[in-house]
Amino acid sequence: MSAITKEDQYSIVLRWSEPELYCLDLDPDHLHGYTHHHEGDVLALDEESDSDEFTIGDFACCVYDVAFASAHGESAFGLFDQSINSIHYYHALYDKKSARLRADVKQLVGRRTLEPNVLILDRLRIYPAHRGHDYGLLVLSTLIQRFASGVGLVVGKAFPLQFDTPTRPTRKLALTRATPT
């Protein structure tokens, strides 16, 4: 497999892994019905020949349906407390005492009414041989367009995956205002 050059004519395609099966029982002990995980591979397809396809990376994201969970008496904390990775997002977004969005998050989004649901862009990996062509930006943009409906916040941690460990404390998430397209 060779690196993609700017002169090459490739289409970038997301191939989804099998969707997770969800327990439809809304028992308080089953919070998985309020989260929707999506993951898969990033593929490059040769536009000249449909047979040349190769993997250039992978991705994972999750929608946290805070509104639906709240309607069923679940807290945002309980929803985000399902994994060590997601609980870091809770602490970066919500005030510990009031369990509401932190003041700095509210200031960032302005006076707009904010949907409570959160899209976490958990992982995007473009393999080293294929970096430098803005494929990562294209994939992130596509994931946001596909899953941001009904979502008030889109968040992610930007750092190389080789430095990520499940017990690594999150220092501070970078928040930036998204420009409307």
Keywords:
181 residues; alpha+beta; 5-stranded mixed sheet; 5 helices; disordered C terminus
Structure commentary:
This protein is an alpha+beta fold and 181 residues long. It has a single domain, classed as Aminopeptidase, CATH 3.40.630. Helices cover 23% and strands 24% of the residues. It contains 5 helices and 5 strands, in the order E-E-E-H-H-H-H-E-H-E. It is elongated, with a radius of gyration of 18 Å. The chain starts with 9 loop residues before the first strand and ends in a 25-residue tail after the last strand.
Number of helices: 5
Detail the poorly predicted runs. 1-7, 21-26, 165-181
> What is the class in the CATH system?
Alpha Beta
What is the architecture at the second tier of CATH? 3-Layer(aba) Sandwich
Number of individual domains: 1
What's the total count of β strands? 5
State the share of residues found in helices, binned by percent.
10-25%
What is the alpha-carbon Rg in Å? 18 Å
Derived from helix and strand composition plus strand pairing, the structural class reads: alpha+beta
Widest β-sheet, arrangement of strands? 1-2-3-4-5
* Shape summary: elongated
Termini gap: 36 Å
Order of helices and strands: EEEHHHHEHE
CATH-derived topology: Aminopeptidase
Mean pLDDT metric: 78
The largest sheet is: 5 strands, mixed
